[in-house]
Automatic annotation (TrEMBL):
<dbReference type="InterPro" id="IPR051784">
    <property type="entry name" value="Nod_factor_ABC_transporter"/>
</dbReference>
<comment type="similarity">
    <text>Belongs to the ABC-2 integral membrane protein family.</text>
</comment>
<protein>
    <recommendedName>
        <fullName>Transport permease protein</fullName>
    </recommendedName>
</protein>
<feature type="transmembrane region" description="Helical">
    <location>
        <begin position="117"/>
        <end position="145"/>
    </location>
</feature>
<feature type="transmembrane region" description="Helical">
    <location>
        <begin position="249"/>
        <end position="268"/>
    </location>
</feature>
<feature type="transmembrane region" description="Helical">
    <location>
        <begin position="151"/>
        <end position="178"/>
    </location>
</feature>
<keyword id="KW-1003">Cell membrane</keyword>
<dbReference type="InterPro" id="IPR000412">
    <property type="entry name" value="ABC_2_transport"/>
</dbReference>
<dbReference type="Pfam" id="PF01061">
    <property type="entry name" value="ABC2_membrane"/>
</dbReference>
<dbReference type="InterPro" id="IPR047817">
    <property type="entry name" value="ABC2_TM_bact-type"/>
</dbReference>
<keyword id="KW-0046">Antibiotic resistance</keyword>
<feature type="transmembrane region" description="Helical">
    <location>
        <begin position="74"/>
        <end position="96"/>
    </location>
</feature>
<feature type="transmembrane region" description="Helical">
    <location>
        <begin position="185"/>
        <end position="205"/>
    </location>
</feature>
<feature type="transmembrane region" description="Helical">
    <location>
        <begin position="39"/>
        <end position="59"/>
    </location>
</feature>
<keyword id="KW-1133">Transmembrane helix</keyword>
<keyword id="KW-0813">Transport</keyword>
<dbReference type="InterPro" id="IPR013525">
    <property type="entry name" value="ABC2_TM"/>
</dbReference>
């Protein structure tokens, strides 16, 4: 029985090792490109920094949250989430550029696993996103953000942000494979960065939104992630009423899980046929 099991498992190990090596190679290629074009890093970092400056200072007295807590502390969760959304565009453009330039066709002609190419893209951009998160967190501390939870809770909050960021990168992968037009991607992705946070509790309390938008804002996964992070960090919260506000963890698991499943499945399928 042991010999049979060993024989069955022996061929699989090299395949897994090769897939990991290929993923790291693609990620290394992507990181080298980013090193030559630091504007991408600046783009995903400047979005949340400008939000904290504009909303946190210029408009702070015009924005009120329930309980009269610190708006800077309330805003921080929304700002780091916006940084994750800002990563959708660069990833989509990079994938679309590889499709238009024939790089994807060359990868498919080589004995490289299809998952390695896409996972390599997301791994590289995920590492860049983590670097951006560090910069934004330091800036937030300078502007007055303070966590009040335990060390484990604070780390869990940042872990949740990291998961959210990675899932959003797969949205960018699917968008880049589905649309070869860089102009279309450049026009659509700023809407994601702007509209989704403002139609959530990222920057404004849901109670302050019009009634017809309140339900959408409460069910928006951005609201659930922001609410969960504020609870973990001990920051002021202004969640709405109903199921999403009372069970943000479940809403996060369902929505992000569904987005990740759909984008990876359809992304890998699209990768097989793109360009044909």
């Amino acid at each position: 029985m042991t010999a049979v099991a060993t024989a069955a498992w022996t061929p699989r190990a090299p395949a897994r090792t090769a897939a990991l090596t290929e993923t790291l190679a693609v990620a290394g290629r992507r990181l080298r490109h980013l090193r030559r074009a630091p504007g991408r890093f600046l783009g995903i970092t400047l979005n949340p920094l400008l939000t904290m400056l504009v909303l946190g200072f210029l408009l702070e007295k015009s924005l009120v949250i329930p309980g009269n807590g610190s708006y800077q502390e309330y805003l921080f969760a929304g700002a780091v989430i916006q940084g994750g959304l800002a990563g959708v565009g660069p990833t989509a453009i990079a994938v679309a550029s590889d499709v238009r330039g024939g790089v994807i066709d060359r990868f498919r002609s080589m004995p490289v696993s299809r998952g390695a190419v896409l996972f390599g893209h997301t791994l590289a951009d995920f590492l860049v996103g983590l670097g951006s998160l560090v910069v934004v967190t330091g800036f937030g501390l300078l502007l007055g953000w303070r966590p009040h939870g335990s060390a484990a809770a604070v780390l869990a909050g940042f872990g949740l942000i990291a998961v959210f960021n990675y899932v959003m990168l797969w949205v960018g992968v699917l968008l880049g494979l589905a649309s070869r037009s860089l102009e279309t991607i450049s026009s659509l992705t700023p809407l994601v960065v702007t509209v989704l946070p403002f139609l959530s509790s990222a920057f404004l309390a849901p109670q302050n939104l019009p009634a017809w938008l309140r339900a959408f804002a409460e069910w928006n996964p951005v609201s659930a992630v922001a609410q969960a992070c504020r609870e973990l960090w001990g920051n002021p919260s202004a969640a709405g009423s109903g199921f999403p506000a009372e069970h943000p963890a479940l809403v996060i698991a369902l929505t992000l899980g569904a987005v990740f499943l759909l984008t990876t499945v359809f992304g890998l399928r699209r990768y097989r046929t793109v360009g044909n």
